[in-house]
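Annex B. Sample input.
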Amino acid sequence: WTKKKILLQINTVNYWESEHINDPSVLDIPEWNLRLMAYTSAGTKTVYNDYISLATASIYGDTFTKYSGNPILNPPTNGYVARPAILYENGKVKMWYDQADAYPGATNGDTTVKVMYREITYSNGTFTVSTPQTVIPNGTLQAYDVEKINGTYYLVGQGAQIWKSADGITNWSNSCPPLS
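Annex B, continued. Sample output.
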């Protein structure tokens, strides 16, 4: 591997990204004439303060600019949102991510990790994010990637688990064998 360039830098002034940036999901959207990156950003050294943010580049480019409306998703008061996975389909970006409403070990609140879904639309330089839907209230699953193959959505999660769904929102099944 050869290090080419750093695509995004933390900004110690911004509370949502003063510590680290990771878990990018990138796709080219010719209809919007841009390359979109969704990523996890954190304001502390713990996972309990993670946000989801966006950056854009010219189509097929590698010079990203952080979206001025960041973060696009804030964590629950004592929890986190992280690991966005994005796909473009029918004029909108579909995004899956994991969320916990309370940090692990908390004495109050739900520490269950669940996979959430939102849609992102774009118009005149502004991104709009839909209300959240819980798609997998699994308890431990963390979303790492989602792909659509032959009309079926596949989510690869923690521990190489593979889940599938016909519409990407409802009726997820973990009947696929794990990766090895």
